[in-house]
Amino acid sequence: MAKENEQKYPAVTPKDDVESKRRELEEQVAETKHTFTLAGEEIAYTAKAGTLILKDDEGNPKASIFYVAYTRDGVEDVSQRPITFSFNGGPGSSSVWLHLGVLGPQRVLMDHEGNPLPPPFKLVNNEYSLLDVTDLVFIDPVSTGYSRPAPGEEAKQFHGVEQDIASVAEFIRLFTARAQRWTSPKFLIGESYGTTRAAGLSSYLHEDLGMYINGIMLVSAILNFQSARFSLGNDLPYILFLPTYAATAWYHKRLPEDLQTLSLVDFLSQVEAFAIGAYTTALMKGADLPVEERTEVAATLARYTGLTQTYVEQTNLRINIHRFVKEFLREERRTIGRFDSRIKGIDRDAAGEHHDYDPSYATVQGAYTAALNHYVRSVLDFKSDRVYAILTGNVQPWDYSKYQNQFVNVAENLRQAMTYNPYLKVFVGNGYYDLATPYFATEYTFNHLELDPTLEGHVTMGYYEAGHMMYLHEPSLQKLKKDLTAFIAATLSDK
Length: 495
What we know:
The chain has helices at residues 2-8, 14-24, 96-103, 161-178, 193-208, 236-251, 257-260, 264-285, 291-305, 309-314, 321-327, 359-379, 411-420, 439-447, 474-492, and strands at 29-38, 41-55, 61-72, 83-87, 106-108, 123-125, 135-140, 148-149, 186-192, 215-221, 335-336, 344-345, 425-431, 459-464. It folds into two domains: 2-226 and 367-492, Alpha/Beta hydrolase fold, catalytic domain (Rossmann fold, 3-Layer(aba) Sandwich), CATH 3.40.50.1820; 232-357, no CATH class. The protein is built from 15 helices and 14 strands. β11 and β12 (344-345) form a beta hairpin. The termini are far apart. With 495 residues, the protein is α/β, with parallel strands linked by helices. Strands 1, 2, 3, 4, 7, 8, 9, 10, 13 and 14 form a ten-stranded mixed beta sheet that branches. It has a two-stranded antiparallel ribbon with strand order 5-6. It has a two-stranded antiparallel ribbon with strand order 11-12.
């Protein structure tokens, strides 16, 4: 049988096969017209779902980037109409979360608290979309979504801090040129590692491409990885994660009565003062910490986190996030989510140090995957038989070689961009129950940005009683919409 097939279908050499596929590589675009209602107003818009081919200087294709773009119809002067480029993080995540969670004209239907409804899942009109105030472009970096390297090109050339920034920047440049939007106000919005990308882009776009950005919106930010890496000798994360541990204990009602009756904000202000005061001092002293002081600090940590004092002492006063999510509700045989510590999970057993899975990701994975695959093909009319990579590990290993022997830190990129372009404004959204990128770590990063005093007012913080994806919680989504809209308006008022 094999011999017969060989005669019927002549063998193609790998080189010829690659060249053939390169010639066949074409951009695809599906354009559709829609309307939806936002704040009582009917908005007409054009949606484009398609691929854009990145090429080198010789015109050779390097990668095919999938995107979804929404432009409001009836705009006479697009130079006055903002355009926002959006992406998520990972590394390895598509743009589905911001797209169908908060920004786009449709969103995944969840319950009021952010829990999925039983399958089959569905989309609803998104009354919190930003399409009323800005056009939107959702970008899937190489190897995510439908984006792939060109035939014959190695995917790893796009899988790294610097490489990723360069390829996404080239997409933004090419899209902007083709859409004739160079004179439009431009914004970036990223979530999680997408905030790392956004900060890197802020300097790359203006330094390498001469493109100045009006505003950057960071959702659940991580710019300085030292603030979240529990490596030996690095005490910073233990301090910066503590307020989120405490918020978790407050939410699950694991605190002493005098603390439990406080508002979350009042309680956290008390915890923050301890974190940067007595707790920081204790960790700094190390082996020189007196026994009495150690006992007092351990008792306070236990009081604020809902853990036992014995357990806290066993950790040497250093509570690792991966241990915390397993230990916190161990006696109930439950774990809690890393993306959202409000969410409970169930492991095979209640022993061990680490949980089997993140229940807060499991709650959204199925709903968003189903909704995206239906939406792109059935509503946006983009046809592809490829697997849409929602969140993939195929981008690993991620290249951090520029930061060899140091922590990744793109906060300096952002400071430079804000200094070179003094009109650049930044908004940062923080979830109190986010154990992936804790709000106190983000505050630390921005407090150590060393911005000139004249620029410090260019950073705005927003806080939400939800997790990493705060928009899953409808009250937080409502507030986020209000905050982002106000930020865009305030930024444009400086024109």
